[in-house]
Amino acid sequence: MKPLKILIIALLPVSIVYASQSYVKVTKTDNPDNFSTINSVLKQYSLKMKILKIHNSDGTLTNIIYTGPFSTYERGAYYQRKLKNHFPNPQVVTSSKEDKRDGFYFGLGFGYGDAYSSYDNDTQSIELKEPQNSGVSYTGELGYVFSNGMFSTIGYSTIKSSDLHFENVYASLGYRVYDRGDFVPYASVLLGAGSLTWSSNPLEGVATDVTNKSTSPVIGSKIGLIYDGFESVSLAASYQLLILDHTANISADETTSTTYNHSALNIFLLEFQHKF
């Protein structure tokens, strides 16, 4: 229950979205002649037009049209629904700026990981020392976010306890939902490979070697919430589930043996992402 509580606490900031000041990003235009038409629509709802000028790398100028601020997110969402009758894709945001969504990012994460395990004894004469299945987890990811919210990553994750060391490499494909301002929920699926190294002996008083690596394919999923309110960095809280199949066949002698299996990893993370 402790990891679940940690994740719930980490995700509580999403509630701030509904109580924070907001704007509506109405539309964008390259032609200043459109300003009067846009402004006349906004005046129908007693809204004021704000213009953010973006200088493009090719020397052209794009004008981002905003209205607001509104006292709450819900108030901004109310006018967003009204403006959908006039503009193709108005969006509620929590700051009147143009965020560059597409591009590369690098992420580092720190948190808690826990492995699900089971075992079978061929005889009752084996006395097993249960390994420590939970420990500190670290992750690193290199990803690319597309302007439509899709993203792909390659990543590495590890969980290390006093007895076990899990390592995983993977590629993932996911989607970010850009309709909650600076708070961006996301989900992804992943595919990769992993290894498990034992650093302790699970058989009390018996000389046996279980330090060789076990390898396994890995599939999984990840969900999380990003705070994207800074220009080049983001903070995130996430949960990652990895399904795998690590089996240790441990024998005390020719007649006594046990099979120890690890089939899933639960990883709870706080992450830092840098966009470049």
Architecture overview:
Strands 5-6-7-8-9-10-11-12 form an 8-stranded antiparallel beta barrel. Strands 2-3-1-4 form a 4-stranded antiparallel sheet, with helices on one face. The chain has 276 residues and is mainly beta. The two termini are 37 Å apart. The model is unreliable at 4-19 (pLDDT under 50). The chain is built from 3 helices and 12 strands; from the N terminus they run αβαββαβββββββββ.
Highlighted features:
276 residues, mainly beta, 8-stranded antiparallel beta barrel, 4-stranded antiparallel sheet, 3 helices, 12 strands
Give the DSSP E fraction (strand runs of 2 or more residues): over 45%
Largest sheet: 8 strands, antiparallel, barrel
The largest sheet has its strands arranged as 5-6-7-8-9-10-11-12
Helix content: 10-25%
Q: What is the β-strand count?
A: 12
Q: Tell me the distance between the termini.
A: 37 Å
Secondary-structure element order, N to C: HEHEEHEEEEEEEEE
Radius of gyration over all CA atoms, rounded:
25 Å
Shape: elongated
Helical element count? Answer: 3
